Amino acid sequence: MYKIFNTTQEASHYTAQRLLARIQSNPGANLGLATGSTMEPVYHRLLEFLQREPVDLSQLTTFNLDEYIGLGGKHAQSYRYYMHQHLFNKLSIPEEKINLPDGMSMDVEEACQAYSEAIRASGGLDMQLLGIGSNGHIGFNEPHTCFSSRTHVIELSEQTRLDNGRFFVDKKEVPTRAITMGIQDILEAKEIVLLATGMKKAAIMADLFHSTVDEALPASALKQHPDVTIVLDCEAASLLPQQVFNEAVGIMEGVR
Ligand code: GLP
User: Fold this and answer.
1) In this structure, which residue's CA is closest to atom 12 in ligand 1?
2) What is the SS3 assignment for 178?
3) Closest alpha carbon to 187 in 164, 218, 165, 161
């Protein structure tokens, strides 16, 4: 299902509402969380909602999608740092219920296996939030990642290193490898919400719309899932067929 909004602000607002609704209906939920600039306004909104309407977060568990190998939690570009800056430092989720892959692990293979097992042992993800890379990656599952993959080490593509280089002082500092939740782990989430905003996501969203289920386009795996919402702003949706546009326009009361 597509939901298309006029602005990035509205699309982010809607996405944050979906997260909030999941937390309110199940305070013990397991949430799969994502990073990237797309998610910043979402977390900002979610914090605003939770300030207005506090919810007990002591039972909530979170699992992040991915982490760079070689960046510790104090590195400003690590996803652990990002999540604490944008969300966790301002919420009262118990630290032991916050899960991110460990990019500094001495035994990455074991850490990967343990991560997928921890997701399963917790009862599985109730909701997975996703962004999308310009090459169609979800998490850091680059093109041609096997759809049956579990948490694994991935060699980042040149495109991804180029895209993410904007956050680093020197593009050469972008790590070459990362740990990512696998596509199978993602597909086992009960509900998936993918958010894409801005013109730079328009081409990949059109490719995804037209694509069959194909490992060359990782996000196309979502077409096999029964409960996926794709949330877009007008720019990211601008290359979709007009008919999709007409059927998917979201109405946001009190946001415009
Ligand atoms: C990174 C993350 C992805 C994210 C993507 C898009 O590569 N690993 O999980 O979806 O970037 O990022 P942005 O939102 O900054 O475009």
Assistant:
1) 36
2) strand
3) 218
